[in-house]
Write a structure and sequence with these properties.
The protein is α/β, with parallel strands linked by helices. The protein is about 35% helix and about 25% strand. The model is unreliable at about 460 (pLDDT under 50).
């Protein structure tokens, strides 16, 4: 744990959608919890919009109402301030820092290109000691730009004061992976290529574009979900055990997994992409993605991405890991599934099911499920499938509450380390290049369907 505690949270881009929908409600949830009751935080917003103090505080209060309540929440809202600022201008940034109480954290709720320009401006300013920089994904737009941005922020503050935010790492349903993996002797002995046949990590949504064309149409499902969130989940799921849960050991262990990860086969063999056409999900009609406002159809942006990788280590070599995420799908599916190899020998006399055992760690809702073959009713020598399930409790805080708690406490446990961010880009780079060169066909699927009819149905989808 870094000894530095943050007294002022400066939100750059505070007039944007991210701050309103996620960041400010997350802060309210943290302040309304039992998190260090003696702590107070000054909130300072900055953006290009012209907002009066009354308009800003109304915006904060509305956002806070979604996240938490209590005296500390109300006090923070009432004492917060907003400055109309060009966050890429040295003078404006100096003025913002002069308004800070104590040690500041600068949260870049900005597009990647604006973040880079703001960091260049910060090079011309003497930052207060202990200043924290928190940056939203995507961190860079490819491996080269991520490396350049890492080199840039390294001129500003030490690595342990850089928080590359991936809010999936603040979600309790994702952090359940750690407890499931390391607190149960039943699972850890089979967690290797000696017993595991394949792994799937899937995050299929029924939501469509939902007005996010400005960001999503330049990113697509591969960058939005696989390059960041799902590779981070994979690293947690497949890392070696650590002696303690701290930022150094946890991020070292994740880094070992990511450095060993490679696409399985060529991009044409190991990846697929598709885009939804018009359709319906329940009573909700969706227009084709290519006709959504703000979408440039010529970009060939995918809304469903799948790639299969392998972690080339003694523990995992030979195990295919499929990462998949898509929008506007009829059956939301958010889970990691570890499928075990067949039993070495089924005794003669046992009849019926001889299916693969598998373990499912579900996200939204959080659950742990097993698929097992057991003796069925009646004749005990006839096998049938049993699927015991336990629901896992939600955490006290939403993802952004957990993330902001780490930032304000100076603990980068849930932040993505610079080298790991670069590795995630390296892993997807061959696929991105192949897709840009149209080497992998862009398939289509109707909104509300399970995906392209030409894709082989996953053996675990029901």
């Amino acid at each position: 744990m870094n000894a530095t505690q943050i007294q002022t949270l400066v939100v750059l881009g505070a007039d944007g959608d991210l701050a309103r929908r996620l960041l400010l409600p997350g802060l309210a949830s943290l302040l309304g919890s039992d998190w260090n009751q003696r702590r107070s935080v000054q909130l300072l917003g900055a953006g290009l919009s012209t907002l009066s103090e009354e308009q800003w505080r109304k915006r904060v209060e509305d956002a806070f109402a979604q996240g938490g309540k209590g005296a500390r929440v109300s006090r923070t809202a009432q004492r917060s301030h907003y400055r109309t600022s060009d966050v890429t201008a040295v003078e404006d940034l100096q003025s913002l820092l002069a308004d800070c109480v104590g040690t500041p954290a600068l949260f870049f709720a900005l597009p990647p290109a604006i973040t880079v320009r703001a960091c260049h401006a910060l090079q011309l300013i003497e930052l207060p000691e202990g200043t924290v920089l928190a940056m939203e994904k995507p961190f860079g737009t490819d491996r080269a730009s991520a490396r350049e941005l890492n080199e840039l922020v390294a001129t500003l503050v030490p690595e342990n004061q850089v928080f590359r935010v991936d809010h999936f790492l603040g979600r309790s349903d994702v952090l359940n992976v750690l407890g499931t993996r390391f607190a149960n002797r039943l699972l850890e002995p089979v967690w290797s290529n000696q017993h595991v046949e394949s792994i799937e990590i899937v995050y299929d949504e029924s939501l469509g574009l939902e007005g996010r064309a400005g960001y999503y149409d330049t990113a697509g499902a591969l960058v939005d979900m696989l390059q960041s969130h799902l590779l981070q989940v994979m690293a947690l799921l497949m890392m070696n055990s650590v002696s303690r849960i701290d930022e150094r050991e946890l991020r070292d262990a994740k880094g070992q997994v990511l450095r060993a990860t490679r696409l399985q086969g060529t991009p044409r063999q190991g990846s697929r992409r598709a885009r939804y056409t018009a359709g319906a999900i329940g009573n909700r009609k969706l227009t084709a993605y290519s006709r959504e406002p703000g979408v440039d159809a010529s970009r060939q942006t995918e809304t469903l991405a799948e790639m299969t990788v392998e972690v080339d280590t003694w523990r995992w070599s030979g195990v295919p890991v499929t990462l998949r995420s898509g929008k506007a799908l009829g059956r939301p599916r958010k889970e990691a599934v570890v499928t075990l190899k067949p039993t070495p020998h089924l005794p003669t006399g046992l009849r019926g099911n001889d299916t693969r055992d598998h373990i499912t760690i579900g996200f939204k809702p959080a659950r742990l499920a097993f698929h097992l073959d057991v003796s069925g009713p009646g004749d005990p020598f006839d096998l049938e499938t049993a699927s015991p399930v336990t629901e896992l409790a939600d955490g006290d805080l939403p993802a952004y509450g957990e993330v902001l708690g780490g930032i304000l406490d100076g603990d980068p446990l849930l932040a993505v380390r610079g080298d790991n961010a670069e590795e995630c880009w390296r892993i997807v780079e061959p696929v991105l290049d192949a897709w840009r060169n149209d080497e992998v066909p862009l398939d289509t699927y109707a909104a509300g369907s399970s995906g392209p009819s030409s894709w082989k149905r996953s053996k675990l989808q029901h």
